[in-house]
Write a structure and sequence with these properties.
By secondary structure, the chain is α/β, with parallel strands linked by helices. The protein is built from 17 helices and 17 strands. Strand 13 and strand 14 form a beta hairpin. The chain starts with 6 loop residues before the first helix and ends with a strand.
Length: 540
């Protein structure tokens, strides 16, 4: 396709989304209205989430098929990007082999939910989250409002429903994540073209594919425009350099846009219908929105109010709904999720950080070069988060076939070994008067993957349960030295005396409480490989 793109004409073919642009999908009856004042006034975080502390996330979809990392679907259409280079060398030009072909190749034939849940439970997970869709716009459930879903294409199964049944059978809490509100701008690179080289100006597959092109193929009867969303920010003809094309994308579809798309109003209504369908089918305890605030203006508010009201009707309790970069007031209406980040202080309201041991989507290079986040770093992060009234949602990337690799299994087993000894210092706990102490700098905010560490034995985090105080040292002291915790000295505790100290997994230990510190002699035999935990009586 050449010449100026007509947004109106392409929207007409965008999967039949001819819905009233600002139409609402009203909330279920109940005390919550679709506005922030109502959410803030009526919401309270459920106790199950305050107790759970650790969830594991199945962040899995067709972008895991090429096993080449994050945002494959968008970046495979950006000439000069390493993902584009990989795609060109491995699969061919994206005008001929587009993302749609990965859906056709996705089989999930090595996926064993029960085996994975065995590992996740032993590692300490109390809630399990299934990704319901990503920015690639494929629904991984029996969707009534998106024909591009995994019961019709790809694996041919209801992935969310399979997870939900298996998780609930074990008495765990079940969640879903919805990333689809960004699909409409995320996919605009698929309507672009190479600005340089032998295929310069040749538009990619999203531009040309229509329902009739599927006759005789595995996607017969489906409209590719319902997957790719329609060209609302496609680059115009005439861009002749990679730098200029990148600048165009960065200034337009590369923005993280939370508003209703003015040139694709039906997309937002379709998103709302799909979200309603998702929660009504599977009745999740937890919904992760990959959005700043809530998605798509009033649609996100309606979706949240509906889930709150419906959950009260279903089981007499509120669920958890998350958003990112919330205002102080908004944190009382939904639960804040800090992506790959840290906080510097204890939050009054429970919160969550989500992170991954590698890339969000499976990247085989992480296995080859052993660059996963090790169990030690995961547990250290968990201790830091829990000490500040948070929970950790951890992604263990699955391969396209649904399995996890040997290195990931080893990380989970190492986490399980630590939890078997020290889980009581995590699950069901609450913050102490202070979160901890230590020299390691903590920088607050999103995408803080490299913001801390390495932690040492001088970094200690506190949690409480009843009359017990737990002190989690981030590492063992060097050379058999005693562990010294200044926050537990008599001067800081205002004269309160430590009555007893035990090392979890080893029993009572010798200690001395001076004015300046609690000094604990640790045994030579180590019950865990990292992050020893003291159980302290007398200070809560």
């Amino acid at each position: 396709m050449t010449g100026e793109f007509s947004r109106r004409s392409l929207l007409a073919g965008a999967g039949g989304l001819a819905l009233a642009g600002c139409a609402s999908v009203p909330a279920a009856s109940g005390p919550f209205r679709a506005d922030w004042d109502s959410l803030i006034a009526g919401y309270r975080t459920p106790d199950w989430f305050r107790d759970a502390k650790l969830g594991i996330w199945s962040h899995w979809g067709p972008q895991c098929v090429p096993e080449a990392g994050d945002w494959y679907g968008r970046q495979m259409y950006q000439q000069g990007n390493p993902v584009y280079d990989h795609h060109l060398a491995t699969y061919g030009h994206p005008s001929e082999f587009g993302f749609i072909e990965f859906i056709g190749r996705w089989r999930a034939d090595a996926w064993s939910p029960e085996a994975l849940l065995d590992l996740y439970e032993e590692a300490g997970a109390k809630y399990i989250v299934s990704m319901a869709n990503h920015h690639d716009n494929l629904d991984m459930f029996a969707s009534a409002h998106q024909d591009w879903n995994t019961t019709r294409v790809g694996p041919g199964i209801d992935i969310v429903g399979t997870w939900e049944r298996a998780v609930r059978a074990r008495g765990l809490r079940f969640g879903v994540s919805n990333h689809g509100a960004h699909a409409w701008h995320w996919w605009q690179t698929a309507y672009g073209y190479d600005p340089e080289g032998p295929r310069a100006g040749v538009r990619y597959d999203a531009t040309r594919l229509r329902r009739q092109d599927g006759v005789g193929t595995w996607w017969e009867g489906l409209d590719p425009q319902a997957l790719y969303t329609g060209a609302t920010m496609a680059p115009p003809d005439g861009i002749d350099s990679i730098a200029a094309m990148n600048a165009f994308h960065d200034a337009n579809s590369g923005q993280w846009i939370e508003t209703i798309p003015a040139d694709n109003l039906g997309f937002a209504v379709n998103w709302a219908l799909r979200q309603r369908d998702l929660v009504d089918r599977y009745r999740p305890d937890f919904v992760y929105f990959d959005n700043y605030g809530l998605p798509l203006e009033h649609h996100g508010l309606e979706a949240t109010a509906h889930l709150y009201n419906a959950s009260l009707n279903w089981r007499g309790e509120l669920p958890v709904v998350t958003g990112k970069r919330l205002t102080v007031d908004q944190r009382r209406g939904v639960t804040e999720s800090v992506e790959r980040g840290f906080l510097t202080e204890i939050r009054d309201e429970p919160w969550q950080t989500c992170t991954c041991i590698g890339d969000w989507h499976y990247n085989r290079a992480r296995f080859r070069d052993r660059s996963y986040l090790p169990a030690k770093a995961v547990i250290q992060r968990l201790a830091d988060v829990v000490s500040k009234n948070g929970a950790l949602l951890l992604s263990i990337p699955q391969r396209g076939d649904g399995s996890i690799d040997a290195e990931e299994q080893a990380i989970l087993r190492d986490m399980a070994a630590w939890m078997a000894v020290n889980g009581e210092a995590i699950h069901g706990t609450r913050p102490w008067r202070v979160w901890g102490e230590g020299p390691t700098e903590i920088r607050e905010g999103m995408h803080g993957e490299g913001a801390v560490g390495p932690f040492t034995a001088a970094d200690v985090r506190f949690t409480t349960k009843g009359d017990l105080l737990y002190a989690i040292a981030m590492d063992w002291p060097e050379d058999g030295r005693p562990l010294q915790i200044t926050s537990l000295g008599r001067r800081v505790t205002q004269g309160r005396a430590v009555q007893a100290v035990a090392l979890l997994g080893a029993g009572g230990v010798d200690f001395e409480q001076t004015d300046d510190a609690l000094i604990v002699a640790l045994p030579e035999a180590r019950p865990v490989a990292f992050a020893p935990v003291l159980r302290v009586r007398g200070l809560t």
